[in-house]
Amino acid sequence: MNDPLSSLGRAALMSALCAPVWAQRSTPGPDLSAPTFVEEPGVIEFRGVLTARPVQPSHALEYGWSEAQYEARRAAAEALLLEASVLEYIPATDESLLDVGLGNEQKIANLLMASGGFHYVAPDWTVYPAAADCTDDPFLSNQWHHDTIESCAGWAIETGDPSVTVAVCDTGQRITHTEFQQNRKEGYNAVNQLWESQGGQISDLHGHGTQTSGLAIATGNNANGVAGVGWDLSHRILRISNLSSGSTSFSTINHAVRTASDAGDRVVNVSYNGVEATPSNDVTGAYVRNQGGLVVWAAGNSNVNLPDDREDNLIVVGGTTIFDAKWSGSNFGPMVDLVAPGSGIFTTSFSSDFAYTSNSGTSFSSPMFAGLLALMWTVDPSLTPQEAEDRLRAGCDDIGDAGLDDTFGYGRINVRQTLEALGCGVENYCTALPNTTGMPAVMTFSGSVSVASNDLVLTAARCPANQFGLFFFGDAQNAAPSGDGTFCVGGSLVRYGAVQVDGSGFANQSVNVNSLPNGLPPFLPGETTNFSFWFRDTSPGGWNFADGLSVKWCD
To answer: Which residues are marked as active site?
Structure first.
């Protein structure tokens, strides 16, 4: 419906608007304005239908209208309804369901209410179960993080499948806990290098492993306790300490990670400090990537800057509060990829088979992310590790400074957005050549590739500091030498205005899909756009390029 006025009848509407009986604001009656309607995806959504109820005889008594005044108002409403597309009339309540077309709800409600002939006009919303009731787990409402990361709306898309396994490398697990009875795979003791069937002990000596396990894979909708992010996934515990303190060595951790990957586990979680402390962790991450999986590692709880490069082989997860602020203890910096809730997190406890507890730390942020990553591979098993990481970044909610930053990385995870966007695509292509920083510049992004959300922010990283550059895009891919680098975009080229690289080598560009340079038409779902970044290098007259970023837009 392109023009709500024509569909309702301009003549009828103008007659109603000009009716003298209620044109004076001093005339008693209902408020002549419709409230502002705000949809919340996955909670309450427009569907292109309004519920309209004309004024009733009781209103004449309530507002002291004469019979003529009431009849005039009622006649105006009925005239408008005759011109509308009525899907159904409900005699019991004198309501009509009107087909107004998705996106026209507010405009038409405003027009109808302004006529003065309606008791109310409101959307016939599409609504979803309340978050606390989206599973029958009685303590789900204690898990505030599920509301923040939109787990319930995400579970409407996917809850996991036993074909995908999350491996938890930790202090062990209370395997008799009621939340771990579904889809548990054989455990492994990485200290003694023994599988459970060989006598390897995997019981939790500390409690930490039981808590982290619950956040990734605690069984949902089982009328018990809580739910993990991926509550229908398979899971495996790999105990990495035989001490009540939970302490261990990096060699033991990385042996456990490799063992899980060799067993076919696609997602491996490590909720221990020290992700930045040894190159061995990154080398192990590369080993897992080469086998088609990813290692998720907690950022740590010392409130220090991790200066390493987030473009490594690990996914490093920081922690946030219920207010989307950095949790006070969370480490931060260029090594942190993204963040997840980590303060006051309610999860499983090892004290009994039905016990639960609250705790804080990035240890509890990381397994949430691991559960989401495994849900993605349930939806699309063909994703490469790089594709999965790119889409995880794209599905985050951008909190803190706009775009990529060194407190929240690419943002805070969002289960619904990430799973919804799997029909879209983002990938890096056409490797860039090193610039005077000694590294090739790379294209990254935050926000989403949804044209409806319209929140994509491009970032060029590893560029020479304080130089000028510009983002540009085209409809084809390329790999041609140019200047000191490789020109990765082909076809019809369009550029944005010049920007300055900051002192850390980053440059950002917001992409408004509806307002493109040169007056071009908006990007549409299903289209593919290839982006890159041209920048001046510090050599005299030199220039270079970032790699290419290919975006397939979705709804």
So the answer is: 170, 208, 363
